[in-house]
From TrEMBL:
Keyword Transmembrane helix annotated: yes
Keyword Membrane: yes
InterPro entries per record: DUF3021
Name of the protein in its database record: DUF3021 family protein
Pfam families, A to Z: DUF3021
The entry's keywords: Membrane, Transmembrane, Transmembrane helix
Residues passing through the membrane, by range: 7-26, 38-55, 67-89, 95-117
Length: 129
């Protein structure tokens, strides 16, 4: 399957799910703030799903995959966070603080994910021997 199509499927499914929740929440609760929150979470999930296929390009080294994924997240998720209203943006300093938070959370998520997959792979290899 084409990687773009695979990425779109991975992104559209959670985005669609969050859009449905957003619409239902707005319809039954009438709270547009919370409804918008679901929309932006869905948009971020869409970008994550779309970018996840970077790790399936086997001819790329792992470092290149990480760097491309980071750049895609920087160009998609970071502006979404800025536009979402999740963080107050009264000054340039506020945007810089969101940037540092974005990177801090990204590094933590990367390290945890890497550690989990590394330990799972080690256990799998040990079970094969």
């Amino acid at each position: 399957m084409n990687l773009w199509i695979k990425g779109l499927i991975r992104g559209i499914i959670p985005f669609g799910f969050m859009i449905i929740i957003s619409l239902l929440w707005n319809q039954f609760q009438g709270s547009t703030d919370i409804s918008n929150t679901f929309f932006f979470y869905g948009l971020i999930a869409f970008f994550l799903g779309l970018a996840s296929v970077v790790y399936e390009i086997e001819k790329w080294r792992f470092l290149k995959q990480i760097m491309v994924h980071y750049l895609v997240m920087l160009l998609t998720v970071f502006p979404t966070l800025l536009l979402s209203g999740f963080y107050p943006l009264d000054s340039f300093r506020d945007a810089v603080n969101v940037f540092f938070l974005f990177n801090k959370v990204g590094v933590i998520l990367f390290l945890v994910t890497y550690l989990v997959f590394h330990l799972r792979n080690r256990a799998y290899m040990k079970a094969q021997n």
